[in-house]
Every structure is written in structure tokens, then in C-alpha cells.
Structure prediction request, 641 residues.
Amino acid sequence: MLRFASIRLLRAIITILAVVTFAFVVLRMSGDPAQVMLGPDVPQESVDAFRKAWGLDQPLWIQYLAYIKSIFSGDFGVSMRDKASAMQLVIDRIPATLQLTIPALFLKVVIGIPAGVYAALHRQSAVDRGVILAAIFGFTIPSFVMGLLLVLIFSITLGLLPSGGQDTWQHGILPTLTMSIGGIGILARFSRSAMIEVMGQPYIRTASAKGMAWQDVVWRHALPNAAVPIVTIVGFMVGSLIAGAVVVESIFSWPGIGRLLVVSVTNRDLAVVQCILLIIAATMVVSNLIVDLLYGWLDPRLRAQNAH
Amino acid sequence: MTAPSVNAPLIEAKELVRTYEVRQGMFGKVTPVRAVDGINLTVMPGETLGVVGESGSGKSTLGRMLLGIDPSQEGETFFEGKPMPKLGTPEWRALRAKMQLVYQDPLAALDRRLTIAEQIGEPLAIHKLVPKEHRAARVAELMVAVGLRPDQADRYPHELSGGQRQRVVIARALASRPKLLVCDEPVSALDVSIQAQVVNMLRDLQEKNRIAMVFISHDLKVVRNMADRVAVMYLGRIVEEASSDVIFSAPLHPYTKALVSSVPVPGKPLKGRMILQGEPPNPANRPSGCAFHPRCPLATDICRTSVPQLRQVGDGRTAACHLVAGADQPVAA
Prediction:
């Protein structure tokens, strides 16, 4: 188990390092921060001075080594805009993002999974068809369309809810809904197909042939077995708690990580972008790790493999 | 095997019919398929009835219908003289303790997430047969009875061999002390060497506990080994039924003859054997008259036009064939 854990940990660190490296290279090749920050009409001396001040005049690999070195000593750089600590900027924005993504995740799980399971248990019924239709509708409409649609209905036509900002809890409703609808659809589809597959298994038929009550068959045999694929999807959703709000935060002017990312990319604020990507990669990796551990709990066959 | 001493049948099926709807063609035309088409049979307490036939003959459907898991559209099943309760009702569930099912694929029949002890003990919990504190002891007893070691109790299905898994399934089926066991191809997924072990174990357990058994298989050697009586199915109907010895030594129906002669016998040349031509017909497109006539080497005109009924053709044996000597003449041609 220790060996397994250390291999996984090493792999996690390599994954994060790869993301950081990729971001580092791509960001520096896609535009000059000096040009963006200072504007088009500044004299060459100012540009050179800016580059020198931020070390951008050094060869790429020297910049990279310096950056990696500072990361490992806990220094994530400062924003080129106001010299504030990049990590602090990012951390300050995390609560706002979580205010949207955690309720959205909650909605996805408590609506999507039961809807899918219910549809699977009442296959070919009107409810089943309705769930499939709604699910397809939900996850095929991209969030920027869904967000505008909801604004059109609830803010402009009905005048019920604000269309942007973060002043009251009502401001969070539309972004949360926008974010959750697609996930509800995906989870409903996955739960439905996972349950249908499990319900067709001989051990389910034997369980009811043994005289087990229907709800016991569902709770004791069907749901735990159908949980494996569902947990995978939920794990991905947990992994995107921080990263998943970029588009929605931009639509609803919500001051979270997503908006910070968009603004920082536009400004070529390298340290901030890198810091966000690092945190996103870390949450993804951690949630995948948790999913792997959950698998072992859900499926004894995998537990045996991990032991070696 | 001892002859049953009680004269009342344990289970009696009368004119069972099960129709599936199959969509065919581009426009999904619904065609009814009679998987089980008017079957009568009885099983006495402690007796083993073998059901043989090719794939698609409806033998598995028949097995599930006898257990009341698959509802019949026509006909009725009586268990211990009482009609089968409706599927899913509390009476139906209570009756499950008395009749159990063993499937072909033991790995699929087991929940991979639960230890084998949990699964063997499940019928005890469902039917509240053994108080919780004695359950582990009863499970251990069952495991020994099927040739498993009690120290394997905490294993998971994937940690066992195929033969051991089938022993788990059998132990689970026996947990509630059933009177009827329907075994649907119980050994055909196992290696031949393991098959013999499991078949012998089933026979011992059956004799010891006086369980009646419906043994469904396409493997005639195994059926011959297990069954007191054999029913031969073809396309949803029984075409011949007789005691096991009689059916294997002197089959009457041409289909039975073909099946019996297809069993390889060591040292005996293949010459003179009756080899079946072609595949069983599509049940959705049943041949007229005797369903077997397109493959029957002896078919005459009457076979193409008139459906032969199952008739007495001697002491305790029946056959459905126009050409079998001793059969009454059909009522109408």
C-alpha cells in the first residue's frame, strides 16, 4: 500500500510539473507581457527596462529554471500589475468560485443521480423518456448559451433575478443553475446507463429470485455496483470545482478564479496565470487520487490489484 | 435414485405459454414469438427432471416460468398443489425460500462487491430463517457441504476458481433448504474435469436433502448422469418425455434419436449415426405442421400440414410424432 501510495504521489507531482512547464512555455510564446502591459506607443527603452525588471530578457530555459526553483521554495511570483503576491491574489478569489461550484456540484449530484436511477428503474416509461430528453437538452447546450438564455428569461423577461455581480445570494442563483444544468444531464445519463447495465446482471435476477424485496435488491446490490462509473464522473466534477467556472463567471461578472484567469491571460500577467493553472492541476490530480481510492472501496477486485 | 414416495407432485405446470414480441424488418413489425408453447409437466418431490434441447428451444424460459420469475401468459403452475402467487407479491417472495435457481455463469450470478459468506447467508437474512448470531455457523456448514473451506468465507468471488464459484452459488441456493432447484446449464461454463465434481456434488446434496430438481442442459451426458426423467424440447414444445434410461436406450422421436446419436461414445465409429441437418428454425417463423419436419429425414406429407400432439406411447412415456408406432392416429389430418 505504501508503495502504491508513493508511486501515485510521484505520478501526481510529475503531472503537475508537466502542466506548469507547458503553461510556462506557451504563455511566453503567445505574446509579450511588456507590449500588453505598457501599451503600443511606449519607447523601446521602457520596454527593455520592463523586460529586464521581470527577467524576460533572459533565455527561456534560465527563466524556467528560476521559476521552478522559486516554486519549490514556496514563492509563486508577483503580479505584474501591482506586485501583489500572485498566490495571495488567487487564494482571495477561491471562496467566490466555490460559492458557485459547490452548490452547483450539490445540485448535479442530488438531481442528476436520482433522476438517472429512477429512469433506469422505470425504463421505457414516460418519466424515463422525459429524463433522457431533458438530459440531452441539458448537456448539449453550451454554458454560454444556457447562461444567456437564463438571463433572458429570469432577468430580462421576468425580472426576477439579477443578471450579474455578487452582491446578494440571489446573484448566485443564475450562475449556479447555468453551471449545474449540463452536469445534471451528464450524471442522469451516466447513472441511467450504469443502473440499466447492472439491473440486467444475473446476480440481480438471482437476488430477486431469492425472494429479496425489490428495494433491497436496488439498495444492496444494484446501486453499489452501479456506483463505480458514477463515482468516476462525480470525481471529475469535484476536480473541476475550481476550474469549471471560467465561462460562467465571465458571463455573470462573478469575481472568482475564472474571471481572474481570463483577465490575467488578457494582460499576460504570467505569474498569476501560472499560479491558477498550478492550483487547477493540483485539484484535478487530488480528486483523481480520491476517486482511485474510492474504487478500491467500491470494487474489491481493484483493491486486490492495488495491494501488490 | 430412489423413487419418490409421495404421489402428489411438487410442481405441476399446465399449458404454459410465454410469448415474446420481436420487432422485425425496417418498420419494426411486431412478431410474436412463442418461446414456450403449451407445456405440461410435473416434478415429484426428490425427483430430477432433465430438460434438453438446442439453444433457442425455450428451455431456459421454461425454467424461469416454473420458478414464477418469468410470468406465463397462459396456463398455470402449481407448487405443492397451490397456484403460483403473482410475481413480486409477499406470498411470491416467501415462496422463494422453497425454490431456488442455479445459473450457468457463477461469476455473473454473484455480486462482486460482497464476500461469499455474505452472499451465501443472504437467503437466510431475507427469509429470516436463522437468527443472526447463528448465521455464520450455518454459512460455514453450507460451505463445507458444497466442498468449500470455511476459512474461505471472507473471499470475494474474483478470488475463487470457476468451480469454487459455482459451489458458492449452489451453497447459496441450498441455504434456505429449498424443495425445488432449477439448474440452468449449471456446469456448461466449467472445465470438463470440474463438471464431474460439481455434478456429483449436486447429486449427493440432492439425495441427502431430497430436493427435486429441474436440470436444464444441452449436454446429454450430464443429463443422463443426473436425471430420472428427461423432457426433450424443440421450438418451445416438448416432443418426447420418458425415463432417462428409456430415452437414451430407445428414443422414439426422430429429434431425440438425432440428439442421442450425436453423443460421442468412445470406441464407437461415427458411422450409422443420425446427423441433424441445418439449424433450428427461427421461432418467429415457425414451420407449418410438425416444427421439426424441415430437418427430419423421415418427414411425410402429414408432418408438413398437421401439428402432432404429445401422446402416450407406452408406459410413462409420451412423444409428439406422427410416425411413432403405438401413437394414436391424429384426430384430424
